[in-house]
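## retry 2 of 3
previous attempt timed out at serialization; input unchanged, resubmitting
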Amino acid sequence: MQKKAAIGSFFDEFSKFETLSIGTALRSLSQDSLSVDHAEELLDFEARLKLLERMAFARDIPSSLMMELEAVFLRARKLHDLREELARNVAAAANDEHESATARQNAGSQPANRKPMKRRKANYAKLEQLANVVPAESTVVDYAAEAVELQDALHAISAKVDTQLRVNDTQA
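## retry succeeded, writing output
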């Protein structure tokens, strides 16, 4: 798998977690699907996690499930930060690559009335730095696998919450 494809896979899997998995968990705790729809549209990632945490607390979820949920939140926040950093770094690397390509293209096609561009030496330190900005393909593949694990964990917790809430409703 190429690095570009691995990065795309990671972004896709984390997006599934961010939208589908968190949405499913919110719906399992909420009795108002319309408010969940609005929350998904209006709230950012951190706010949705906070809402999910507060809804779980308000619904009096057992402490063991709350601990599982907190562990998922911790992993999700770390992975979200990695995704944001990777997105910034990929954009920076692509921008530098585009500027280099444009400079190479323009080097041979100077208009007659324009001064020729001053020849510059390559900044190898900057090129090496950019190469290290985007993590290795295997690291990005690990990020994608972590996102899939988070999806599975949150779906499992949602199923447990559904079961627990049904038991609580039956006893009430």
